[in-house]
Amino acid sequence: MGDPVSTQAPSSRILLVDDDAAVREHIATALSDEFVIDTAHDGIQALKHLLRNRPDVIATDIVMPELDGIEFLKTLRGTPSMRLIPVLLISGHAPDELRVEGFEQGADGYLAKPYTLRELRARLRTMVQAARDRAEASRREALEQAEREAVAERATLLESITDPFYALDQDFRFTYINQRAVDYFQRPREQLLGRSLWELFPETAGSRFEMEFRRALLQRRPSEFEALSPISQRWIEVHLYPTPRGVAINFRDITARMQVAEALRESEAARSAGELRQREAAQRDAIRVRLADALRPLRDPAEIESTANQILRDHLQASQVSYVSEPDGPPRMQVEMAQVRDWTPEEAAFIQEFAERITAALERVRIEAQIRDANRRKDEFLATLAHELRNPLAPLRGAVHLLKRSDLTPGHADRAREIMDRQINHMVRLVDDLLDVSRINVGQVNLRNEIVALNTVVLDAVEAARVSIEEGAHSLDVAVCDEPVLLEGDGTRLVQVLQNLLNNAAKYTPAGGRIQINAARSGAEAVISVRDNGPGIPPEAQERIFELFTRVHPSDSIKVSGLGIGLSLARKLVELHNGRIEVSSEGAGRGSEFRVYLPVLQAPADAVLLGAPEGHKRVAGCRVLVVDDNQDAADSVSMLLALDGFETRVAYDGAQAIKEFAQYRPDALLLDIGMPIMDGYEVARRIRADAHGRGTVLCALTGWGQAQDKQRALDAGFDEHLTKPVDPSTLADLLSTAIRRRNVKLP
Ligand code: ADP
Question: Nearest CA to 358 among 330, 339, 377?
């Protein structure tokens, strides 16, 4: 009732097929004001349903267990009694190839998820109306046929009735009259005989009858005529025969025949109107086929529109036809005619159907193009990934062989360890990047929000990229910001972004190049630019390089490796910090410049301390308790931290950890989570419950880095959550920063 454009009788029946009960329920309830909705949870149930109740329209999801939307559609189209039921395909999570297949199997409409109820309602309404118009046209035709037959039958019957007959003398007095005629005049015979016609029936005086009768008498020639009788008000056909004494009249009531003729004339007109409608419907069907055939091979959206516009223009003989699609509102056709005319409902529906078919075709090519593009990038990515993962394996294997040798010299052993270290770092970075991208894509990245100094981020990134810059024998100019600028965000992530840009510059610039990194403040923004004098990036590729798996310089043109992830990751991380990233390049061979813009924090003065460069100095003498049930792991981490200047102790299970904590009072605990009997979460909870434990830094170290694992660790009272394998220098930095931060917070 609330919908003012609703025109459907409430009896339109829709069969809704969807395996999601909630969706079925929701749609059925919402649309029940207008439609009778039957539901089925898959194609098989839907077919069973169809045997009982024939719907006006079927709306079916594509992806379903048992019999999916496409198979169901095929079955329908192969069954004569069901072939004509219109089908609306709905899909969202369906693999896109399926949608394309849906069109090929003869779906009448297609709706992509997410869609609004309003869209679904409008779509169903149009489809129901179109189906009804078709049914109505054929019903009318049958009715007219039946009528014509009845009329013909009546005519034959009337023909077989014996005619009335009478005779008049020269003064038009009745001299003879048969029973039929008596019946006709509805007077007793004795009243009629011997009396004049004009006298008995004054209404005939001056009529066509009088005129014809007198002429027959005068001319003495038989004649006949048809006229409406003033006496009976019926049509009669009159035959006049002159007799020696006057004139004999034989007539017959032809009212029925006249009516038949009239009816025939009318039905003739009706029939041609019906035929016209049918012809038009057939024409429309032919146009539908023509349109489908013409659009099927097309890939270019502009060509689809122009081809369809042309077909409709020819069909309507319009001067101009265009497809119009506006963001708010359904697509429609704009038709300009040389002569203004009103459309029949069928024509209007057909024109609208064009708009929908064009939309569906455009949707199809858009999806196809997306699939092709995604597939291409995925294939390229897989090839590159295989290559990238295999690259570090050869040197690793070589190093292992070296270490196994009995004649190994200490020098060789060091070298082998260095190689292994570097290659493992490389692989860890690759896998980390992959994980980061996938987490960001599913929205699972949590930034650790802290206050960091712009210059610290820049210098850390320079430090992290130093090896690759040195490998390329490039010169590096660093210009830090001359005023203290603070940023709010995840320092590690921001360093990762800049490191990535520096690594790219080092990687793509031919050996001996020049790289500059420059940090400055511009109003409310910090701007960090990374510039090189390498191959540059062609203008047409400049937006694309930030897309996942995009590589402009394939590895055979420039001898570099890469997965095409780095810049995509950089952009997403920058955007998570409410910033943006841009590239500019003056063209081939003229270098590239990447600029990162980040909002500047107006922070209280004491925060400067935390982010200042000296914040990363090691805190000598800090006590760290390392807890891991894997004794090797615990020992090695403990040794590495000791080398970095920490005081350390180890514990190999939860109970021992609690005991050590009470005696040793460490500044920080590095806790493995998965331990038998008492796991890391429990240890953390107990330590947080202890008065002395509140100021202790708790750092979880696990093999699982999912967002929910991190959350769980934070909930248990951890300050930090690290994923194994952790880089020892990162660990040392993180622990010292965290310990210092706690010390600042707790006086
Ligand atoms: P990767 O470097 O792993 O291929 P990125 O996403 O970091 O992936 O970079 C995408 C593409 O952008 C690279 O393949 C390269 O073609 C181009 N590119 C990135 N940085 C530079 C640069 N400094 N100079 C020239 N081309 C670059």
Answer: 330
